[in-house]
Amino acid sequence: MGFYRRHILPGLIELTMRQQALLPYRQRLVGMAVGEVLEIGVGSGLNLPLYGAGVRSVVGVEPSAELLNLARRRAAAAAVPVELIGSSAEVLPLADASVDTIVSSWTLCTIPDIARALAEARRVLRPGGAFLFVEHGRAPESGVARWQDRLDPLWRRLAGGCHLNRPIDALLRAAGFSIQRLEHSRLKGPPTHTFLYEGRAV
Ligand SMILES: C[S@@+](CC[C@H](N)C(=O)[O-])C[C@H]1O[C@@H](n2cnc3c(N)ncnc32)[C@H](O)[C@@H]1O
């Protein structure tokens, strides 16, 4: 599993995550970011070229050294200063109330201790700051959700810890966030993998 995780999975994540269908979601999300931005699970840095006006700097946190290497190239070409940090979202190496926007794209599914990561997000977010997210997660249809629960243990092993069945809005609320905007949509593909939560929490 170590070889798969280090040498195969990062390439698979990069390939899957750079599909064109995700670009409009990324553009909308990043377009709402302002000020000092923290991106959790920055991955291979696919959002980095999209940051522009209104953003002073971006800190990207990512535990995978292989994905961080891929992100470095995109960081160098970004229009805003980018700092990449090898760390996990559960232990953010940032001061309290130090960022204006947190960006999370398809990351909350994978963070092992999601409650701890969201508590850290609240700690580093300035009062009035926003947590912007686009995530896949638990589908509203009970039949699909049942399949998500069934497939989750296997999928998690194949996809580097990604959960299919996380109720993203409920997790944000349980962490003390208030959701200001939430939209649902679906990507093409298996219904267990494609139900999206997109929005803004404060
Ligand atoms: C599906 S990928 C999404 C990558 C990127 N956000 C994007 O939009 O392309 C999930 C990401 O979550 C990262 N991740 C896993 N555990 C994490 C943790 N504890 N803290 C932060 N990120 C984590 C993975 O390494 C991976 O980069």
The number of E-state strands comes to 7
Over the alpha carbons, how many angstroms does the gyration radius reach?
Answer: 16 Å
Summed over residues and divided by their number, the pLDDT gives a mean of 96
N-end to C-end Cα span? 38 Å
Q: What is the overall silhouette? A: globular
What is the share of helical residues? 25-40%
Structural class: alpha/beta
Q: Strand share of the residues?
A: 25-35%
Q: Which sequence of strands runs across the widest sheet?
A: 3-2-1-4-5-7-6
Weakly predicted, low-confidence segments: none
The helix count comes to 6
Bound molecules: S-adenosylmethionine
Give, in order, the helices and strands. HHEEHEEHEHHEE
> What profile does the largest beta sheet have?
7 strands, mixed
Q: Please, could you describe this protein's structure?
A:
By secondary structure, the protein is of the alpha/beta class. 36% of the residues lie in helices and 25% in strands. It has six helices and seven strands. The chain has helices at 2-17, 23-31, 65-76, 114-124, 142-158, 168-174, and strands at residues 35-40, 55-61, 82-85, 99-105, 125-136, 179-186, 195-201. The chain has a seven-stranded mixed beta sheet with strand order 3-2-1-4-5-7-6, with helices on both faces. A hairpin with an 8-residue loop joins strand 6 (179-186) and strand 7 (195-201). The chain is globular, with a radius of gyration of 16 Å. The termini are far apart. The mean pLDDT is 96. The site of S-adenosylmethionine has 21 residues, from helix 1.
